[in-house]
Prior knowledge:
Helix content: 25-40%
Distance between the termini: 13 Å
Strand order of the largest sheet: 2-1-3-4
Radius of gyration: 12 Å
Amino acid sequence: MKKVIKFYATxxxxxxxxxxxxxxxxxxxxxxxxxxxxxxxxxxSGLAAKYKIKSVPTTVLLREDGTELSKSGRxxxxxxxxxxxx
Length: 86
């Protein structure tokens, strides 16, 4: 199953706007994709370091074949769907 990770911070203005888009789009794909939210300031998993997150928001798609796609910045609903479906 694909996994999509959203890296964000609570103090980040664009992250707050992007959260609304994320919350609107992701329920559509819950049966096909695992969605994960990582607050970079509370990340105990080490994922932010693993994926070298330098800015937020950043969205990372982990495909089933092991490849990944990373998009920095706030994505529109269409852009987020494109990432999910790629």
